[in-house]
Amino acid sequence: MDPLLDFTGKVAVITGAAQGFGQLLAQELAKRGAKLVISDINEAGVLNVADQIASTGAEVIAMKCDVSKNEQCKAMVDVAVESFGRVDIGVNNAGLAHEFMPLHNIEESVMDSQFAVNVKGVQFGMRHQIEQMLQQGEGAILNVSSMAGIGGAPRGSAYSMAKHAVIGLTKTGAVEYGRHNIRINAICPFFTLTAMVTNFADEEKQGKMGLSAPMKRLGEPKEIVAMMLMMLSPLNTYMTGQCIAIDGGVSAA
């Protein structure tokens, strides 16, 4: 196996792994030798993903986790350490969107739910991953932000607010823990064909959304996960504090 993408023996914890980026990343890491603890608020869904991965011979543990609950994020790390002895990789992927609406119509309850899952959920994950990585003397964390985290998102202001906060957490964490050999980066996808998009946009709407990208299409989940793998590569040891746009050229226009 190419050493660039050889994760043999690495222990990864991934939130939001019942579908989308989390599911695909878990499957790809397992193919490359990683041991996994995967979670999702959708317990049946994440157990099904774990069964699929386990059938290939990979080591995987699945558990329910509401990332807005600090103690449940800690439990993920505890399970990884108890079962596999360490945490090499933390992927804070769980998140939720909200219905498109003008900023002046956003209710406090929408902001509360965005902050609870998309911000606190990332901080809770980072907190416990970092505590373990400090004991080990190394580790890599990847947070999932969005293009809405590095630019404006008309009619998605609460989501944009939360994803901007993920960028702040990522950069601040990278500065604080770089001296401890803990790398912290974020990935910022444009609209991608995961359930978060397909559940509210039919094919016609997806086509219109894709026209805003220079490549004139939406992203495919495998394209995002390919970059996630490279950002987490055991040989990618000097990259930290970066928030990488995977956007079909949107940020270049």
From TrEMBL:
This is SDR family oxidoreductase. Keywords: Oxidoreductase. It comes from the Bacteria. The keyword Oxidoreductase applies. Belongs to the short-chain dehydrogenases/reductases (SDR) family. InterPro entries: NAD(P)-bd_dom_sf (IPR036291), Sc_DH/Rdtase_CS (IPR020904), SDR_fam (IPR002347). PROSITE patterns: ADH_SHORT. Pfam families: adh_short_C2. Gene3D superfamilies: NAD(P)-binding Rossmann-like Domain (3.40.50.720). CDD domains: SDR_c.
